[in-house]
């Protein structure tokens, strides 16, 4: 008898890419049936605060707020390496200290870092697809672009600040920028959680191994907003071999992110990422 698992992810290209190898039946899902739910990342963050879905994409910057209800998964992770979200403004615009800025959501990682770096700015939260137009129309003084928007935006706009540069100033050199990952509800039995993590790891591996075939199918079925060379460029940035399983360097980056948040009063206690992953030693104990 199959067990249904709600798998919530955003509709941006890297999430679609990492999960659809499973959706297309290219991965053995054992007795599990995955119900794909596509919502924008801030909606997923808010729903994670409510404990809505079994497995959900989240912004790394909000994980400490749900750490008692959800464990972090090691796979389907997105980090920036010299790139990331961009703070953009109109070319002729000079930003004041209290400039009005459009952000993609209160709980996103980029919003966390932005608010720390620009404490006097006045955030307005909106769907990330609306941010570019809001800046062009003068509705806001600036906006932080995320996802595919960072690759191609209106020629009247220019980059004021890279979130990557903010990260380096706050965290120091040598660490990738943590952006998003996956969390799994703690109420699920541990053996089920381990199965799901392993299936998702395999799904990201297969997606990377069959990147050209999968990209072609995603484009043909109109499942992604960008295509051709732009899609491949974006996936090379955010859905690559580095997305398969958290590395030691990525864990260090997450620990640094959470230390920055703690020092700025965003949560009550420091967090060590390793303590909130699914314990792998359980598998070893079961086979002894």
Describe the overall structure:
It contains 10 helices and 11 strands. α3 (109-117) packs across α5 (163-171). It has helices at 13-23, 41-50, 109-117, 128-136, 163-171, 190-209, 211-220, 228-238, 248-263, 281-286; strands at 3-9, 32-38, 55-59, 70-72, 78-80, 86-90, 100-103, 122-125, 142-145, 157-162, 177-185. The mean pLDDT is 90. The chain folds into 2 domains: 3-78 and 178-286, 3-Layer(aba) Sandwich (D-Maltodextrin-Binding Protein, domain 2), CATH 3.40.190.10; 86-171, D-Maltodextrin-Binding Protein, domain 2. The strands form 2 sheets. Strands 1, 2, 3, 4, 5 and 11 form a 6-stranded mixed β-sheet that branches. The radius of gyration is 19 Å and the shape is globular. β7 (100-103), α3 (109-117) and β8 (122-125) form a beta-alpha-beta unit. By secondary structure, it is of the alpha/beta class. The active site is at residue 147. Catalyzes the conversion of cyclic dehypoxanthine futalosine (cyclic DHFL) into 1,4-dihydroxy-6-naphthoate, a step in the biosynthesis of menaquinone (MK, vitamin K2). One of its GO terms (biological process) is menaquinone biosynthetic process. Keywords: Ligase, Lyase, Menaquinone biosynthesis. It catalyses: cyclic dehypoxanthinylfutalosinate = 1,4-dihydroxy-6-naphthoate + dihydroxyacetone.
């Amino acid at each position: 008898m199959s067990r249904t698992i709600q798998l919530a992810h955003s509709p941006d290209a890297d999430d679609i890419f990492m999960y659809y190898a499973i959706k297309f039946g290219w991965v053995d899902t054992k007795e599990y049936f995955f119900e794909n739910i596509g919502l924008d990342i801030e909606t997923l963050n808010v729903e994670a605060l409510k404990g809505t879905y079994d497995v959900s994409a989240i912004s790394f910057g909000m994980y400490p707020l749900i750490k008692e209800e959800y464990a972090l998964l090691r796979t389907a992770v997105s980090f920036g390496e010299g790139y990331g979200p961009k703070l953009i403004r109109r070319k002729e615009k000079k930003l004041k200290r209290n400039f009005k800025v459009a952000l993609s959501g209160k709980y996103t990682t980029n919003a966390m870092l932005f608010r720390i770096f620009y404490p006097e700015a006045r955030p307005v939260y909106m769907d990330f697809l609306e941010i570019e137009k809001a800046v062009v129309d003068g509705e806001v003084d600036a906006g932080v672009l995320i996802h595919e928007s960072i690759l191609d935006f209106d020629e009247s706009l220019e980059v004021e600040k890279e979130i990557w540069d903010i990260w380096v100033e706050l965290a120091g050199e040598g660490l990738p920028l943590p952006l998003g990952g996956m969390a799994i509800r703690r109420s699920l039995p541990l053996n089920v959680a381990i199965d799901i993590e392993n299936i998702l790891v395999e799904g990201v591996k297969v997606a990377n191994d069959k990147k050209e075939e999968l990209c072609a199918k995603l484009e043909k079925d109109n499942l992604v907003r960008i295509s051709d060379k732009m899609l491949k460029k974006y996936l090379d940035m955010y859905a690559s071999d580095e997305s398969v399983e958290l590395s030691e360097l990525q864990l260090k980056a997450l620990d640094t992110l959470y230390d920055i948040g703690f020092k700025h009063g965003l949560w009550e206690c420091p967090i060590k990422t390793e303590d909130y992953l699914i314990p792998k030693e359980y598998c070893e104990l079961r086979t002894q």
